[in-house]
Amino acid sequence: MSETFTIKRNDTSPAIRWELEDPDTNLVGASVVFNMKNTVTGALVIDRGTAEVVEGTDRPTLGYNWAEGDTEVAGLYEAEFEITFADESVETTPNSENIVVKVVVDLG
pLDDT at residue 59 above 70? Predict the structure, then answer.
């Protein structure tokens, strides 16, 4: 089952984080991007947004800091992180499903 990340419309915090399954994944020298699409329209809302390797965590963790406009439209989205390792190999995670992002209408 997919993990769901929930955030209110127009919020830029908290950042989305994703722990990798393999605790031995070497992210030294890796670059990471974040992709997110609207599940209803299929529109790609975030296309290769700059993501990061999160330091100081127990497991290898990726993160994306929301930019203004990323959460502008309430609804359901699918998301993924794409890692390019130091050896230029590429892995998309999660690789068996997508992260579900739920943007909830705010009250004000």
Answer: yes
CATH architecture of 4-104: Sandwich (2.60)
Mean pLDDT across the chain? 95
CB-based burial label for 55 (10 Å; 0-12, 13-18, 19+): exposed
Q: Where are the chain's structural domains? A: 4-104
3-state DSSP assignment of residue 53: strand
Q: Which of 105, 104, 93, 99 is nearest to 36 (CA)?
A: 99
End-to-end alpha carbon distance in the chain: 32
**HEC string for 8-46:** ECCCCCCCEEEECCCCCCCCCCCEEEEEEEECCCCCEEE
In the predicted model, what is the mean pLDDT of residues 69-98? 97
pTM to 2 decimal places: 0.94
